[in-house]
Structure formats: C-alpha cells, structure tokens
Automatic annotation (TrEMBL):
This is Peroxidase. Residues 28-324 form the Plant heme peroxidase family profile domain. It comes from Brassica rapa subsp. trilocularis. Binds 1 heme b (iron(II)-protoporphyrin IX) group per subunit. PANTHER family: PEROXIDASE 31 (PTHR31517:SF11), PTHR31517. Its main location: secreted. Pfam families: peroxidase.
Length: 324
C-alpha cells in the first residue's frame, strides 16, 4: 500500500474545524432574533423586495450576486454596501465589484430605510441582505431555507482587502475549487452555488473573447448568436446576455441542462463540465432539480453563516452605505 499524502488529513481537519466554527456561529444566531425588538422585520423586508421585484424583475439576481460578493471574500458583514470616501476606496468600488447591478444596492437601502422608521438602530444591514436574498430567491421559484439572524455589520470596507478573493469567470477551475475549499466548501457545494447563474445576466466583456474559439465548448449556433448580440459591445459596454437563455427569469435547473449542450455563457460554466471533479455534479443537478434545490439551499445557508460578526465585533449601522 502506498503512503497517504499528509495533505489529505490536514485538509479534512481544516474542513472539520470550519464546520465546528460554523456550528458555533449558528448557535449565537437565531431565526427569531428580532421577534421582540422588531416584530415586523420579516414583513417589512418581504414587502420591500416584492415591490422592487415587480417593477424591476432583475432585482432577485442582483441581490443574490450582491450577497455572494459580500459574504465570500471576508464574511457576511455588509461591507459591500459601504460607499467610498475621500480617504478610503471601499469594496463596492473595487474593479471586480463595479459591475454589480444598482438594483441590488437600492432594494437593501429601501428595506433599511423602512426598518429604521419601524425599529431604529435595531436591524443590521447584513441581516437584511441575507433575508432579502432568501426571499427574492423564493419569488423567482427557488427553494426556501431558514436564515439565522443576529449578524453585526463590519466597521471597515477596503477594496485593497479583496485582492484575489473572489472567483473570476476566467479563473482556472483548480483555482476556483481552492478558493471554495479554503472557506470550508466542498466541490459539490461549489457546483450547487454556481446554479445561481440560473437567473441574471453577464456583460459581453465577460465572455466575448471566448466566443468562436474551437476549444471553449460553445454550441456553434449559440456562439454565432452571442457574436451578433455583442457586436456593438465596443461602443456600448453595458450590453449583456442572460446567463440562462432558456428560462432566464425562473430559478430552476435549466442552467445545468444547458452546460452539456454547449449553452453555458461564461468560461467558468464550461469549466464545470470539462473538469472531472465537477462534471458529475453538473450531470446530477441537470437530471434532478429537487436534489439541486436541496443542495443549493444548504449551501446558501452555510454561506450566510460564513465569517459572521456578532456582539462587539461589529455594529448596527444607521445607514447601510456608511460606517457609524
């Protein structure tokens, strides 16, 4: 028998420690955290996001992306919402966050404004993001999952702290897997979370350079359609294409059904099918939507607990875009 690599047990130990940490954080948070201090919290968030989603149907995708960009780098602490000042470039103005849709920021600000009127300085912006994400996911057909509450908002937000912490559409799959594993997420959880691309859109700049290359896996007719859709991109960089061309406004497993057919939009989408570590999960979710929903909900709940600040480690902001 060959020797076991020393990295394997270390990796397993690391994942175990992160799991225990998540469990500890979860024990400090509760699903009814605001039942006495702000009893209408959930209703106010739900009313706000429903009104916004009706008038701006891309809001759900915008908030889910905002949630990921807030939580994944350094934890769910609403640092993504802070505006830059003359003395500090905040996370939202880092190059990787400049394409975040404005509707995501707007709906959180609206919810916070309504909550400040009902329960001043009680509800954190990070809790608003987590609940709004879950509720908007449900409005577009996605799964429901419990959200534990009691997060505090960060007291800092620096673009310089984001260096190489968020996965890029062009990142090699090996690097993306390492980024997720370093935060305690398995390959399967990474693939499940990639299913967020079931809704939303991407700007042409994210994929137009790949279209037409023989080695990228695009369906030829799809590649031609993308070239045509992005033909004016140099003059108008705001041109975008739906991530899922079949059911763009419905959260379902069509994203995973598209990928094997060469209908994935981003390089990372094709990478999920070309890498033997991720391909089995793409196939699994393509044929079993219930399993995808179950795994996606669990992974989203886990992400919502990543790097959470409680007690004196954070604050309750009066405005989500400014540190107190």
């Amino acid at each position: 028998m060959g020797e076991q690599s020393p990295l394997k047990p270390l990796s397993s130990l690391f994942l175990l420690l992160l799991t225990l940490l998540t469990t500890t954080v979860e024990s400090r948070l509760t699903t009814d955290f605001y039942s006495k201090s702000c009893p209408r919290f959930l209703d106010i968030v739900r009313d706000t996001i429903s009104d916004k989603q009706i008038t701006h149907p891309t809001t759900a995708a915008a908030v889910i992306r905002l949630f990921f960009h807030d939580c994944f780098p350094n934890g769910c602490d609403a640092s993504i919402l802070v505006s830059s000042t003359a003395f500090n470039v905040a996370e939202r103005d880092s190059s990787i966050n400049l394409s975040l849709p404005g509707d995501g920021f707007d709906v959180i600000v609206r919810a916070k404004t309504a909550l400040e009127l009902a329960c001043p300085q009680t509800v954190s912006c990070s809790d608003i993001i987590s609940v709004a994400t879950r509720d908007l996911l449900v409005t577009v057909g996605g799964p429901y999952y419990p959200v534990h509450l009691g997060r505090r908002d960060s007291r800092t937000s620096k673009a310089s702290l984001l260096a190489d912490l968020l996965p890029l559409p062009s990142s090699p799959m090996a690097k993306t897997i390492r980024q997720f594993e370093s935060r305690g997420f398995t390959v399967q959880e990474m693939v499940a979370l990639s299913g967020a691309h079931s809704i939303g859109f991407s700007h042409c700049k994210e994929f137009v350079g790949l279209v037409g290359r023989n080695s990228t896996g695009y369906n030829p007719r799809f590649a031609q359609a993308l070239k045509k859709a992005c033909s004016s991109y140099p003059k108008d960089p705001t041109i975008s294409v739906f991530n899922d061309i079949m059911t763009p406004n419905k959260f379902d497993n069509m994203y995973f059904q598209n990928i094997p057919k060469g209908l994935g939009l981003l390089e990372s989408d094709h990478g999920l099918y070309s890498d033997p570590r991720t391909r089995p999960f793409v196939d699994l979710y393509a044929r079993d939507q219930d399993r995808f929903f179950k795994d996606f909900a669990k992974a989203m709940q886990k992400l919502s607990l990543y790097g959470v600040k409680t007690g004196r480690r954070g604050e309750i902001r009066r405005r989500c875009d400014a540190i107190n």
